[in-house]
């Protein structure tokens, strides 16, 4: 098969479209002929040599895909050759074929095309695992989504609204905030010009749940923006890894800070998240309340161009790669 490989760690130019051996499905896995994949920030870090794949995972980039099942490994039940699926991957999505544990498969939701469904698994599993399974967002609560215009952010806005929350977002320009508003965001904060703590406190009395992509640089301000009993879930460290936590503020608000990383989790844990997404989130997608937000579609062989786009922050939502 052909796949995108990394010649050496570096800029997008190190990505090559080359011949590599076909993957084989192990017991419990299926082989998918890839229709589309999508770019995640982790792919950029992996390309730069800063985020090696977890042990046993494919060296090829790509944390999600959609496509058609072409072979079943031993002991796979519930799926057939010819089924159209999308899948959460530990790697290997930037290729014509990928082997994936059956526990990480999702059916293509009704009303979403095969290619567009490639934009869903990573954001759906991340947002559901954090905002719902971990932080327990409830109707009537306030959800603050940092980076509302990104892949994760555009999905989190829709999930928050579908669950009956008030959604506040941060983004880096008026244009991106307007796009977030059209997706349903209620409170818009330009992180370059405004103080999200003041905005949240004045307009809501504080956030009940914060989905944070920044890490260290926002740890203190996120606590300030919280309501009593608030929950922060950190999923990224775009603002650094080491910050200072004021325990007095944390205890005073009876608040909690959690964090997670999806990719290194064992198949059994990912399978639990995928099952919850299929049961609870897929019906929201099929009712049109949550849809894939795709800023740009690029041929897989031009993955370097797609990485430049993501690094420039040019797309609203996800960048999809078509095989
Ligand atoms: N832990 C996990 O399992 C997991 C899974 C998936 C993703 N992630 C992480 O989640 C984050 C978002 O992923 P993504 O795929 O959505 O990436 P993305 O599409 O590239 O979005 C990145 C976002 O960061 C925003 N941003 C930049 N500086 C900011 C600031 N000072 N304050 C608030 N927002 C700021 C950008 O906003 P503007 O474009 O408006 O400037 C953009 O919306 C990444 O850090 C990624 O590594 C973690």
TrEMBL record:
Q: Which residues form the Enoyl reductase (ER) domain?
A: 10-321
Q: Does the keyword Mitochondrion apply?
A: no
InterPro entries named among the record's database cross-references: ADH-like_C, ADH-like_N, ER, GroES-like_sf, NAD(P)-bd_dom_sf, Quin_OxRdtase/zeta-crystal_CS, Quinone_OxRdtase_PIG3
Q: Does the keyword Oxidoreductase apply?
A: yes
Tell me one Pfam family matched here. ADH_zinc_N
Q: Which SUPFAM superfamilies match?
A: GroES-like, NAD(P)-binding Rossmann-fold domains
- Gene3D superfamilies the record matches: Medium-chain alcohol dehydrogenases, catalytic domain, NAD(P)-binding Rossmann-like Domain
List the Gene Ontology MF annotations in alphabetical order: NADPH binding; oxidoreductase activity, acting on NAD(P)H; zinc ion binding
Q: Provide the alphabetized UniProt keywords.
A: NADP, Oxidoreductase
Q: Which NCBIfam families match?
A: quinone_pig3
Mind telling me what this protein is named? NAD(P)H quinone oxidoreductase, PIG3 family
Show the taxonomic lineage.
Bacteria, Bacillati, Actinomycetota, Actinomycetes, Pseudonocardiales
